[in-house]
Amino acid sequence: MMGRGQCRRFSRLLSEERDRSLTQSEADFMIGHRLSCAECGEALRLNDLAFDDLRGAALNPEPSENFDDRILIAAREGRTSLGFGYWSPALIGAAIAGIAILSALTILTRSAASPVRRSPFGEAKLMRGTDQFPALNLDSTPLRPR
User: Which DSSP helix (H) or strand (E) runs through 30?
Assistant: First the structure.
């Protein structure tokens, strides 16, 4: 087994090799290290197997040869329209979203139109021409609402 630093470098280059072309010195290092380190050689073999499996399972981007014919036949037979069952989840979701938006707008417009509530004690106001608040007379009887 080689030094852990070389194995880490091999592992890093193994990952980078899929994203970019390695330099000649990096490629030479990969070949030499793979031959001298059994663990890294096995890691390379497993990595290649995994990527081969992924390539095999990938979707084929090319449509089949009779794709155009199948589309034309479906259009002629009227099989292109989808029923209510297909669209019902989307319609239900849109209805729920619409109700939520209307509720939010109603709350916003009603709160703006509702009367301003004042505190039961009123607001303290500055006396004209001064920077002082009026003095409170605590000895008098309280005012009663009319």
Answer: helix 24-36
